[in-house]
Amino acid sequence: MTIRTQLEDLSNEIFLDIFEYLDANDIFFGFTSLNLRISLLLNSIPLHVNIHRTYCRHELEFLCNHLKFHSDQVVSLQVHDQICDQTNVIVYLFHRHDFINLHSCIFYSINSSSKLKIVVEKLSKLPKIVLFRIIQSCNVKEDKLNTSDAFEFSQLILIDTPSTLRSTSLYFHYNHTQIATISKVTTNLTHLQIIFYGTLNDISIYSLIPLLRIHRALRTLCVTIKSTHVMGAYNTNLPNLPFINENDLPISSLLKSFDLQIVMAPCDIYSIGLILHCMPNLYQFVFTFIRDRSLSPFIMDLIHGQNWQEMLTSHVSYLKKFDFHISLLKFDQPLDFDDIVNSFRCLVNLYHQWDMCISRWEYWPNILFVYTDHIHMWTLNYNHLITRRENDIRSITMSDTFYMQSTNISNLNNRQLNFHHHKMDFFMPNDRTTLSIQLPTILLFQNITYIVCHLAYPEPSVIAFLQNATIRLKQILSLFTRDDDDSQKYFDNLVRLVNLSNVETVEFSRNNDIRRLNVIERVLLACPNVTTLIINSSLLFSTKLLKNPSLWLTFNQLNKIRILSDDVYIYPKYVSQFVQRFPSLTIVELEVYSIDILAPIVDILLSELSKLRLIVIQFRDNYRLSYPFSRKYIIDKRRQSFGLSKDNEDKVCIKLENQTLYIRVA
After folding, report:
1. What are phi and psi of 116, to 5 degrees?
2. What is the dihedral of CA 548, 553, 556, 560, to 10 degrees?
3. 100 burial class (0-12, 13-18, 19+ CB within 10 angstroms)?
4. How does pLDDT run across 527-569, given as a tens digit for each residue?
């Protein structure tokens, strides 16, 4: 006789174990109102609320309706302030609920609001809060937390610190100048991540001193000093640093790990030494320095190893781990790489498995005929991935200009060689055909997951259009020969630099040269794990790509595509062709010129792509847009084509914002 175990037969302990793996919304959706026994269990479990940015208003309202009876059970909260069709989600939640037993609270991408003070007030009264984080964009322009609200959060966490709080991240752009006026505050904070952002009159490396004076219990500290300076705004030779009384420095004897990032702000060996003097028992120090232009004397001190040895051994004698990343843009000033590398050899035996590298790339920063050297210095154990600058002029790596030296070149073969960012812009000029990496072994960059292939100089669009038109005319007149196609050389140079098997996103820039069309096929076939393609319409809809059988398997594995309009407009007939080749797409982003073709394009996407989750359509021209589709229309269309569950129906939403239409299908 077969005994069948049903869900209701499971013990309470198993149910409790299951609930630990689910967030509150999943629990409410799957288990609410099943029976009295489950309802009693739901009243006794800790709840974890996780509102991701892919949420829609229907899901948020469903969650809040259930939290009316369970808000005191919420112990952790992770909230994105902007979801698919609603902003100020944090205010919405805290206006309705009191999370009196909250232990952990993380806010992402807060949008300032007149009601945000309610959130700060309720946070200040939480009796059990242990962890609190605010994570804004590293791009200043995308950080929507205004100065007034930033001050409120800074005041709450740094000065009026809850006694139970142990770990916090204030990852938003603010100068925190109010801490300089505080003489003494006793806190129990042990882990802190913070950004000091402002003018050079408001922030400097010495902004840390009042911070260390207040929070003496810190064990781990990660600080970013970032100035409002934009590239080329100044060219100062000496750091403008305030006077500091060396006899009145705070001592953080418990601090073991210190991560210091300096972005476009002045510092020198002396100022770093003063800060480290406050941390006599430091075990690990990670230093990041990013600066544009001006190889001034204080910067030259930073790239000389013996200066670091003298400073570190004088101030942090217990230090066991030291790593750094130094990134500079150099205009014509000569550097002796041999001298730099040799100066750091004194640190090789000072710290365990310590070696450093210095590399040079020639960059083309999108200014006609202006080339720039990017000097990149790092220790092999450095594990951060630092974006050069979020508002930097887009720079393109020139294919044959890479040069690297190290304190131990042979040691590089036993390590993964990492680029300074996950993303690389790559270009090979027509007159350069050989990649001369000056190393005994060719070492591929392993960490690049996003590659942008520039097939031509990023010239003004009118010039690029005329050039491509000329090339097409030559093809028609049979004046264009195969000798002009250097696609194989371009591809060879790329694969000698980058491990393409790790690449997930491939972009072919809109400033393309149709003579190098074969590069696209070679690159896509060499990227077995690519899932995202960004390409302009003239390239995608060419017969060499869309009708190329060798690419069909690659097209089939893509789950996201972004098609950029150029001189070939995106018409419904082209969309009908490409959905047949890309059946696995979940996200489709298009640029269109005319609102008249919107309805047929959306109809094709909704009825042909069974895995579709999101449509994003950006209008290149300024229209007075209204909602072209109702939510009911989207639901009916998907139900007719593929069927639609009640759960997925609730997730359907439409949003129109800044000339862009977002349609979330499920």
Report:
1. -70, -20
2. -80
3. middle
4. 999 999 999 888 888 878 888 999 999 999 999 999 988 777 7
The answer to whether residues 56 and 666 touch, using CB atoms and an 8 Å cutoff, is: no
The whole model's pTM is what?
0.84
Asked whether 110 and 143 are in contact (CB, 8 A), the reply is no
Return the pLDDT at 232. 47
Count CA atoms closer than 13 A to 437's CA, side-chain side: 18
Name the residue with higher pLDDT: 398 or 328: 328
Per-residue H/E/C for 346-412: HHCCCCCCCCEEEEEEEEECCCCCCCEEEEEEEECCCCCCCCCCCCCCCCEEECCCCEEEECCHHHH
Buried/exposed code over 293-316 (b: 16+ C-beta within 10 A; e: otherwise): bbbbebbeebbebebbbebbeebb
At residue 86, the 3 state secondary structure works out as: strand
CA pair distance 233, 294, nearest whole angstrom: 11
Q: Which two tokens stand for residue 642?
A: 């593929």
Q: Which range has the worst mean pLDDT, 225-234, 336-345, 410-419? A: 410-419
| Per-residue tokens: 618 | 């950006």
Q: Between residues 258 and 462, which one has the greater pLDDT? A: 258
* Token duo for residue 156: 């709450």
Query: What are the residue ranges spanned by the domains of the chain?
Result: 531-666
